[in-house]
Amino acid sequence: MGLIPNELHADEPWVEKYAGELFYNIVTKADFDPHDYKYGSFIYYLEALPYFPIMSMKYISESILNPNTTGSFRDFVISMKILDQRNMTIFWMQRAQIALIGGLSVLVIYQIVKKLFHKHAALLAAFTLAVLPLHVRESHYIVPDLAITFFISLSILFMVNLFQTGKLKWYILSGFMIGFSSTLKYFPLALLAYPFALLLVKKKDWYWIRNSMIGIVSILPGAFAGVPYLFLNPQTNIPVFQKGVETALNWYRTPFTEYASAIVLFIRSKGQEPLPDLSIFIPPRFTRYYLTLLFYRGFGVFPSIAALMGIFSLLILHHKKILFIMIIPIFSFLYFSLYIPALYERQADTLLPFLALLVGVFLWSLWRFMASRPIPYKRTIFLIILILVFYYPFTQSFASSWACGKPHIFQESAIWISRNIPSKSVVAFKGYMPFPQGGYELIPLLPNDIFSIEEVRSTGAPFAFINIYDTLIGYTNEFISFFIKPTDLYQNYYPVLALHEYRSRANLLQELSRPAMCNQPQLVYYQLPPALPNGKNPIIYSLFDSNSDMNYWHLQEYSKKSKADILYSAEEGSTSKGSLQFTWSSINYTLPRIVSDKIRVTPGAAYTAAAQIKSDTSLKETERDGFLRIDFYENENANTVLPGPVTALSPRIYGDFEWKQVAVTAKAPANALFMIVSLQVNGSKPEGTFYFDDILLLQSNELPPLQI
């Protein structure tokens, strides 16, 4: 469900291209070499298969309709120009093959758990994998990641048979599948489990040693089967392979790959080239990206808790098998989280069968425990636990697959714009968002350039359309390392703060989105709020003619403290000497902001905050920084560290280091009690100084009617 149309995965065109060329070369030149080794060879051979039945049926049909003009099948394939355009039937079949592999992975995990534990645990584990949102989503794309998961799982199944039966054929098949699975992305994960499988063999004698060595030797024919033409035509293909590896290392370079390369150089130079110090293996950082991905979206909160409980179940009840079962997921998780610089959701795919196994083992162990004790309503309790564990994965996978079967959100976006936005309108937009052809004046937005409501207003655009996914992915990477993002740092971070301003002040015309695991972006369409006249009645002013004005302003620190401070500058000033100076020498995610005391407001009244701001260095347009902010709060005990229900931001300054005036006007909501005025700096440079002077807060003359 949802294979077509779905979105196009970024890596699918590459596989499509070489699979199509492989079919073309087989038919026209009898050339079975895929001529690319980015993803091994299996994925290209697999995805070339649908071309044969579809093109054969087309050829037969053409031969019946035009028998005199139809030449050979080879000539027909050449004339069809299959490489110039996508055949949607073939594309659907290519995706269906990956979905089939995803389904076969479920059967393999069932067999593994059944052989290791019990058929009831196997059913629970298989069902878990079948509805796992990340597994279901990856089953929709013609990329090799799910195939890697399948063949690693198959390797584990063969190893289970190896230590349970001791038969030679399972040693051979285990080694063969280890070699084959390693060629899909050149990551020999299955090899990690092989030593532990050997240790689980009950009878360790001469035949055990012999069979173990035969299994290791069998890795080579498995690798040959995975990339045959890398062995058959090394002179041509090894340079292609090396080029692909060099490109991949831009994203996947780790101390392990560097040390492996150093060993090769060490051997080639006969010891002349020294090996790196082992200190390179000290992890540079730990990213919680994959932990967060699985816990919240790819797996779910309750399934994740069940998997953790499954580890305890293994430790207590099946400790002899735990290293064999857990070595691959533990190594994968630590390797991805500690070393690999690139962050891709699909890297977590290899963890999924093992997580499903853990859930199955936990639920089975839990039921055995409950069944052996006089617990009232045990069936009802267990049913509730099952619902808690499986509700999110099942509903998320179903909803995402169903939504992916609908027209793509970008297609829906273009239709909505053409029907609802007048032609020749000026539209500011952020992130990829297709527009109907012609008729619109488009202004690109960037969080470090033009982005907030007042900045967009200065361009003359009445509309702001934002791709939320692009904005957050592109400009909040600093927060990937958090398992739970600190709300004070995250919500006050400028791109997130500006999005909150749109939600609180602008008119939302439309929002288009899909369920989280459909992997399509959230698009929002705003109309800017009407411009309000500046207030004229001053109620607060800080001219900083003396140090006493500093008493009204305070530094609002966050949970992660930056090296920043405020002080009175007697030298710098806008109209006269004296200003508030904000200096920072390091940024810990979000710089602290300077806040006023609480200011009582009249609901419905408009308030203008204005100030003179100066930077100690010149700022490019893409380094805009320094702005005023108004937050209205509706509760006396509201947490003023976080943005209020309504937030308004002034434009940021840029250009030469001269005094520049900024202002923002916003209306207090109906339930507002007080407001906070903030002086804020993003930190567009690693260190610097901003000066604030002549800060005024003005109230509009037109007040709402007095409510009696």
Automatic annotation (TrEMBL):
<feature type="transmembrane region" description="Helical">
    <location>
        <begin position="170"/>
        <end position="201"/>
    </location>
</feature>
<feature type="domain" description="Glycosyltransferase RgtA/B/C/D-like">
    <location>
        <begin position="80"/>
        <end position="217"/>
    </location>
</feature>
<dbReference type="GO" id="GO:0016763">
    <property type="term" value="F:pentosyltransferase activity"/>
</dbReference>
<keyword id="KW-1003">Cell membrane</keyword>
<dbReference type="InterPro" id="IPR038731">
    <property type="entry name" value="RgtA/B/C-like"/>
</dbReference>
<dbReference type="GO" id="GO:0005886">
    <property type="term" value="C:plasma membrane"/>
</dbReference>
<keyword id="KW-1133">Transmembrane helix</keyword>
<feature type="transmembrane region" description="Helical">
    <location>
        <begin position="146"/>
        <end position="164"/>
    </location>
</feature>
<feature type="transmembrane region" description="Helical">
    <location>
        <begin position="322"/>
        <end position="344"/>
    </location>
</feature>
<feature type="transmembrane region" description="Helical">
    <location>
        <begin position="381"/>
        <end position="403"/>
    </location>
</feature>
<feature type="transmembrane region" description="Helical">
    <location>
        <begin position="350"/>
        <end position="369"/>
    </location>
</feature>
<feature type="transmembrane region" description="Helical">
    <location>
        <begin position="116"/>
        <end position="134"/>
    </location>
</feature>
<protein>
    <submittedName>
        <fullName>Glycosyl transferase family 39</fullName>
    </submittedName>
</protein>
<keyword id="KW-0472">Membrane</keyword>
<keyword id="KW-0812">Transmembrane</keyword>
<feature type="transmembrane region" description="Helical">
    <location>
        <begin position="294"/>
        <end position="315"/>
    </location>
</feature>
<feature type="transmembrane region" description="Helical">
    <location>
        <begin position="90"/>
        <end position="110"/>
    </location>
</feature>
<dbReference type="InterPro" id="IPR050297">
    <property type="entry name" value="LipidA_mod_glycosyltrf_83"/>
</dbReference>
<dbReference type="Pfam" id="PF13231">
    <property type="entry name" value="PMT_2"/>
</dbReference>
<feature type="transmembrane region" description="Helical">
    <location>
        <begin position="213"/>
        <end position="232"/>
    </location>
</feature>
<keyword id="KW-0328">Glycosyltransferase</keyword>
<keyword id="KW-0808">Transferase</keyword>
<dbReference type="GO" id="GO:0009103">
    <property type="term" value="P:lipopolysaccharide biosynthetic process"/>
</dbReference>
